[in-house]
Fold:
Amino acid sequence: MTEHDLANSQLGSLSYDPAPESASIAHLRPSYGLFIDGAFTEASSHEQFATLNPSNETTLATVAQASSADVDRAVVAARRAYDTVWSKTTGAQRAKYLFRIARLIQERARELAVVETLDNGKPIRESRDIDIPLAAAHFFYYAGWADKLDHAGFGADPQPLGVAGQIIPWNFPLLMAAWKLAPALAAGNTCVLKPAETTPLSALILAEILQQAELPAGVVNIITGDGSTGAALVDHPDVDKIAFTGSTDVGRLIQQRVASSPKRLTLELGGKGANIVFEDAPIDEMIEGIIDGIFFNQGHVCCAGSRLLVQESVADEVLRRLVRRVEQLRVGDPLDKNTDVGAINSAAQLERIKELTAFGESEGATRYTSSCALPETGYWFAPTVFADVSQSHRIAREEIFGPVLSVLTFRTPEEAVAKANNTKYGLACGVWSEKGSRTLWVAERLRAGVIWANTYNRFDPTSPFGGVRESGFGREGGRHGLEAYLDV
Ligand code: ADP
Structure:
């Protein structure tokens, strides 16, 4: 062992040789059109915009900016496909297509993982082991439902809604596309999907997969563009349902816009999840759970455990171990298989994180930021923990959507529940305790759509996910996820 290694091991950190995944498997085209009626086509305005690699600010490809005329073309294609083909296919036939899509995602998993990491900035370990396998799993799961809708608990022969307009965010690009498309198709709807402007590439590869799967033309249309494209989709009169995942502000706007129409709506919005730690929780697992709860995907997670509520008796020890663990997180090249925390998705998001963390300091919280070296180009934010946070601080109330944890303390279970519920959001919470009875007591009183016990950020296609209050309404995943696309 060299002196340097010894020093590192004494500090509790290890040095790793680079282990980069090759980007050559990505095979990206220089530019992409819109996927409408089964084929790639140019935007009517011929307008294009660049999608960047946030880890080094290089352009990966240019994509089309869909106008309202393009949105109309996509909706017309989806309507025609619904009327002439998809509403006439049997559930077993729809299942066949969904199984094919799932298998093709698996076949192209490595390519999709690399593309996702290039376009989003997330560590390859996460896109490879979480995003892409879960996206395939969603198609497999809903393939199983397509011919069993009679048994889903929504009455005999439940009917689809028609054309679904689906707008998704940039934090889990392919996975969010799968969450939207798989249940909609299983239930018999046709779709127009709009990926986020900073992460359109995996959805465009999915379009190629839909072609490979010989999905009938028009059943799924994928249109790229910014918020104006999303707004045109929301406003289109021939769309029967809007499914949106994104910020609470845009969700509120969409709710207002569809309020005077017969469109159905589901919204999956922001969050400020509380991870509640009792003194009897097994400390090693709990520290890993806290880390995973906030630093997974750079904290770009609507259900992130961004508020740590820790029982006062163990607060000092938990904070000490947490800060030490944060110091060990490997931040850097997202394509490196050893990387724990990748790049922030965009310059705009980085600005927002910086702005909110500056409030953390000015409002009096104590800041611990990892001393890790950050790359010189690209968008980076070192993992950060704020202690001495009070409930009125902006970092305890607003969604930061970045690698920033706010630590608050409590004494009794009642106080923990009151603090956890003291938010306008209600998406997810975690409870860490050895006592099942205590976990259940707390869980019953938390106002959130998802409660994890002794774990965090665990996703499964069979399990419904969604929020209450300003985190939105409607569920995705599980049998419940079908309801959002059936006329029930
Ligand atoms: P974030 O603030 O995290 O980037 P947004 O809610 O702005 O999230 O974006 C989520 C998705 O909503 C993206 O696909 C974006 O293009 C789209 N979007 C933004 N503004 C609107 C709007 N006014 N109407 C419909 N969709 C929108």
About this structure: Residues 167-169, 194, 196-197, 226-227, 230-231, 234, 246-247, 250, 253-254 surround adenosine-5'-diphosphate (CB under 6 Å).
